[in-house]
Amino acid sequence: MKTIGREENIWVLDLGPTSPSNIKIITERGHRIYNEDVLKEANGAELKTKSIDPCKEGQTVVDVTRYLAENLKHDREKFDAVMAWDIPDYLPEEVVKPTIERIHTIMKPGGMLLAFFHTKDAGPDAPYFRYHIADAQTLELQKGPQFRLQRVFNNRHIENLFRDYASIKFFLGRDNIREVLVIR
Known about the structure:
- The protein has helices spanning 20-28, 38-42, 64-70, 87-90, 93-106, 155-161, and strands spanning 11-14, 32-35, 48-50, 60-62, 79-85, 107-118, 129-135, 138-143, 167-172, 177-183.
- The protein is built from six helices and ten strands, in the order βαβαββαβααβββαββ.
- It is an alpha/beta fold.
- The strands form three sheets. It has a six-stranded mixed β-sheet with strand order 2-1-5-6-10-9. The protein has a two-stranded antiparallel sheet with strand order 3-4. It has a two-stranded antiparallel ribbon with strand order 7-8.
- Strand 1, helix 1 and strand 2 (32-35) form a beta-alpha-beta unit.
- Helix content is 25%, strand content 32%.
- It has one domain (11-183): Rossmann fold, CATH 3.40.50.
- The radius of gyration is 16 Å and the shape is globular.
């Protein structure tokens, strides 16, 4: 909220489904917001292909090249803030790292990324929630479509995922969620 509360116009990327409250809060401050539901896109049937990896023979995976050709296609260093929510926990494995790398290229130096990571494996049926900004101190959660929790990242994995970024801070939240603020 500190980044969004700045007076100069900033560009914000919301990686979840469209949220009218997020759009309202951000645009009321004179900022621009883009939504890109990368989780929905990564799970689309049109991106599924058979793996060519001998270790995953016969398994269905996401076509990463096509996924990147169709998603997160923004100018370099465009965004001041990215709201990643808990999307990395639900993304198919093969697109997590390429997504974070692409976000790095489209964020401005000094830009901030907010992400949430589960701290405990609640099983594959852990509910997926859509986050709505209610005010500077409150997020409202709305149960979203049923996406499968793919993994639980530990701190070391998160640090490796964001290794090209300038700084990373961890905060332990409620309900077995770790809040992570990353600065490009």
